[in-house]
Specification:
7 helices; single chain; mainly alpha
Length: about 140
């Protein structure tokens, strides 16, 4: 891996690769690109369902490069969306993913939520989940 020569940037590139590798493995994806696509889609759909202050607090916890992915294209005046159902959440992820994405968007959401819970402070992540509609709060729980 090439180095940028700026310590903070080199660190965030390395940290982002660690996250993407974990996502790739957790979801059984074939590449870091697919892991990036899943992470980006889930982060955007999650972000758009959070109140403004909560979305900003969550973004501040993310590694620098992932934070940029999270904020990319954000229209905060249009958030939070009024969607309250798991099906709408999953449909929005599906629309954000590239065509013929190899896994189901619900599986992608569950895997990303598990990674977020592992990588971030669990107490803060649980507080974040408390701001989501009830049907979305258990996404980090494995499907039964």
């Amino acid at each position: 891996m090439s180095e940028i020569g700026v310590t903070a940037l080199d660190h965030t590139v390395q940290e982002t690769n660690i996250w993407l590798k974990a996502i790739e493995q957790r979801l059984g994806l074939a590449s870091r690109q697919q892991a990036y696509n899943a992470l980006r889609a889930v982060l955007h759909v999650l972000r758009d369902r959070l109140p403004l202050a909560t979305a900003a607090n969550f973004g501040a916890q993310l590694p620098l490069l992932i934070r940029g992915i999270y904020y990319e294209g954000w229209q905060h005046a249009a958030t939070p969306t009024k969607d309250r159902h798991l099906e709408e959440f999953v449909d929005d992820i599906f629309r954000q993913l590239p065509p013929q994405f190899p896994i189901d968007p619900l599986k992608a959401a569950r895997g990303i939520f598990e990674i977020l819970w592992e990588k971030l402070d669990p107490g803060e992540f649980d507080k974040l989940m408390g701001h989501l509609p009830v049907p979305l709060r258990n996404l980090r729980e494995p499907a039964t």
